[in-house]
Structure formats: structure tokens, C-alpha cells
């Protein structure tokens, strides 16, 4: 999961630099995100067949190999079609690896699955942030920003060595897979996951723009707002992992959505930089638990079908990655970014409603 984070944070930070290298507009550059979202949906559709045909462990390694191929293609390419293909390969294969790994992690830890997923995401965020710093340093050196993308294959090589020398127990017994369709709670849990992903991507892509517009900071300075948000993510996931061991995941997720709403209100109303930064940190603290616990909720609602959950999740997440920021951008064009950011509390309300209506017994 940390290897995945180096890819997703590294390529996200590299996108403005890549756009300059290619000499394309912002709209064309945004197609790289669209390619990732589309590939994530395809990955979710293909995942059940891959898991049945090869099993989880080979599928994880297939995903890692394809993700590294995509990152490498972006690193060596100077042509738009090849960089788009690289983003798509990395996004699709990376999703195959990520969601299969989370299903396996949940099975391995049994009742502590939600806490384990949260803790793993916390570590991944820290490693992902490190990749953005490496990219920033490389961009200012003679090596150039592309050299920083080597962090992903280097960490993959370290993973291969580590896994090859580590013996893991089988963990708790996995229930026999059941047949039939999941009930309505599973589909509601998928909607909650989609809302949570959309919320995070809205902050990632438009938070800095709103910060600049409301406080008068330059665009370059306002970009540090993303660091504040990610800092809140990292802190919240480490703390939330312990909380998820003591409180039901549904209650923690509902509370985390409330924290995000409070942080959003502070951020949305503020015209002072320090207050706005504080709002972004609070938003990050709340959002830190969104994806891990929403994913755990999908697994729990699947009725002992974690591989079904692993397959459905990237489809819903991919739709959110594409639709959430697009809707916010369209509203911003018509009404301004400040008004458009009202989409965040709307998504929070839908997610809270889904959590409360689809709670399952622990």
C-alpha cells in the first residue's frame, strides 16, 4: 500500500511539471486524471476474473508489475499519448493491487480489519508524502523531476526482498465463500465509499484554489494548503486506527464525517490564512478515516465476500474520482469556487445518511 502511495502522490505532484514539459493546456493535462479514473473502473470490472483465475497473491504481484510499468512509461515519455497510457496503466494495475491487498488484510486481521486498514493507510500516506518531497527536490536539481519517479520501482524492489524473507502466519480462518447477491446494505456502503473518495479528491484538486481566492495568497503559496490537508490525513489515520479497535467502525466513520464538515465550515468561511489552514488540517483529520472505514464497511456489508468488495470498490471509487471533481469544476465555472464547494457538505450528508441506514452488527 505504501508503494501504491508513492505512485499516486508522486504522479499527482508531477502532473503540473509534466504539463509544462508536454506544452499542453490545463484541460488536456487533466485528461491524465480521467485516464486514471477510467482505468480504475476497468480494474474493478476485471478483478473478479483475475482473482478466480490466479488467486490473491499472484494478482497483487501482477498489479505491482503493471503499476511500475506505467510509472516507468511516464518517466521516459515526452509524448501525450504515452503519458496518458502510463497514467492509465499505473492507475488500473495499482488499483488491482491495492484493493486485493486490502481484502487480504481484512481477512488476515478478522475483527481488527478496519483498524488494520486504517493503520496501513496511515503508513502509506507518510511514505506518499515523502515521495512528493523527493520529487520537489529532484525538480530543483540537475536530475530533474522524472528521476524522483524511480522511488516507486526502488520501493517495489525492497518489498520483493522483504516479502521473500518474511514468513507470515495464516491468521484467522477465512469463512467459506457464499453464493448469491449481497443485500441492499452492500450497495449503500458502495455509495458511501464513492462519496468519501469524491470528498477527498475535491479537496486535493480545488482546495488550494479556494484558499487562494478567499485569503489573497498567491497560487504558489496556496498550494501548501494541500500539505496541511495531507498532514491532517496522516495524523488522523494513526490515531483513528486505535479508535477503530474500541468503537464500532460505523460510529467512527459517522463521527469522522462530522469532523470534516466542521473543518469545511471553518475553511469555507475564513478569509484569514491561518484560520483557513487550521480548517484544512481539521478536514484532513476527518477525511483520514473516510476511505479506510468506508472500504471496511463495503467488506463488512459484502457478507463474507471480501473479493467481491475488492472488485466493486474500484468501480465506485473510479466513478467518484472522475465525477466529483468534474461536478465541482462545472459548478465553479458557473457560480465560482466558493459556492461550488458547497458540494462537500452535500456529499458528507449523503455519506452520513448511508452509514446510519446501513449499519451492520459487529
Automatic annotation (TrEMBL):
This protein's membrane topology, according to the annotation, is: Multi-pass membrane protein
Give the family per the record: Belongs to the major facilitator superfamily.
Task: Tell me what this protein is called.
Answer: Putative MFS family arabinose efflux permease
Organism, by scientific name, is: Nonomuraea dietziae
Q: Name one Pfam family in it.
A: MFS_1
In the record, what terms sit under GO molecular function? Answer: transmembrane transporter activity
Query: What parts of the sequence cross the membrane?
Result: 29-47, 59-78, 84-105, 117-137, 143-163, 184-206, 218-240, 252-269, 275-301, 308-332, 338-358
Q: Where is the Major facilitator superfamily (MFS) profile domain?
A: 1-362
User: SUPFAM superfamilies of this UniProt entry?
Assistant: MFS general substrate transporter (SSF103473)
Amino acid at each position: 500500500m505504501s508503494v501504491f502511495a508513492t505512485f499516486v502522490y508522486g504522479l499527482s505532484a508531477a502532473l503540473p511539471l509534466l504539463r509544462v514539459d508536454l506544452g499542453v493546456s490545463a484541460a488536456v493535462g487533466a485528461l491524465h486524471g480521467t485516464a486514471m479514473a477510467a482505468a480504475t473502473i476497468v480494474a474493478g470490472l476485471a478483478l473478479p476474473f483475475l482473482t478466480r483465475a490466479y488467486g490473491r497473491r499472484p494478482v497483487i504481484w501482477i498489479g505491482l508489475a503493471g503499476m511500475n510499468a506505467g510509472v516507468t512509461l511516464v518517466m521516459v515519455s515526452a509524448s501525450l499519448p504515452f503519458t496518458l497510457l502510463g497514467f492509465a496503466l499505473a492507475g488500473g494495475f495499482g488499483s488491482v493491487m491495492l484493493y486485493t491487498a486490502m481484502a487480504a488484510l481484512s481477512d488476515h486481521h478478522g475483527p481488527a480489519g478496519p483498524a488494520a486498514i486504517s493503520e496501513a493507510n496511515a503508513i502509506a500516506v507518510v511514505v506518499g508524502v515523502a515521495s512528493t518531497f523527493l520529487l520537489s527536490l529532484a525538480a530543483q536539481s540537475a536530475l530533474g523531476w522524472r528521476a524522483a519517479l524511480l522511488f516507486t520501482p526502488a520501493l517495489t524492489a525492497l518489498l520483493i526482498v522483504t516479502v521473500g524473507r518474511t514468513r507470515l502466519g495464516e491468521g484467522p480462518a477465512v469463512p467459506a465463500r457464499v453464493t448469491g447477491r449481497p443485500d441492499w446494505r452492500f450497495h449503500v456502503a458502495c455509495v458511501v465509499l464513492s462519496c468519501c473518495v469524491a470528498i477527498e479528491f475535491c479537496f486535493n484538486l480545488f482546495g488550494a484554489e479556494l484558499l487562494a481566492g478567499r485569503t489573497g495568497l498567491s497560487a504558489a503559496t496556496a498550494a501548501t494548503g494541500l500539505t496541511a490537508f495531507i498532514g491532517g490525513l496522516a495524523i488522523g489515520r494513526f490515531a483513528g486506527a486505535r479508535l477503530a479497535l474500541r468503537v464500532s467502525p460505523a460510529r467512527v466513520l459517522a463521527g469522522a464525517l462530522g469532523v470534516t464538515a466542521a473543518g469545511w465550515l471553518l475553511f469555507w468561511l475564513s478569509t484569514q490564512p491561518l484560520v483557513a489552514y487550521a480548517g484544512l488540517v481539521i478536514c484532513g483529520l476527518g477525511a483520514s478515516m473516510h476511505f479506510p472505514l468506508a472500504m471496511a464497511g463495503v467488506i463488512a456489508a459484502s457478507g463474507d465476500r471480501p473479493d467481491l468488495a475488492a472488485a466493486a470498490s474500484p468501480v465506485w471509487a473510479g466513478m467518484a474520482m472522475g465525477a466529483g471533481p468534474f461536478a465541482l469544476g462545472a459548478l465553479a465555472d458557473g457560480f465560482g469556487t466558493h459556492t461550488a464547494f458547497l458540494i462537500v457538505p452535500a456529499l458528507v450528508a449523503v455519506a452520513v445518511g448511508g452509514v446510519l441506514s446501513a449499519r451492520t452488527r459487529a
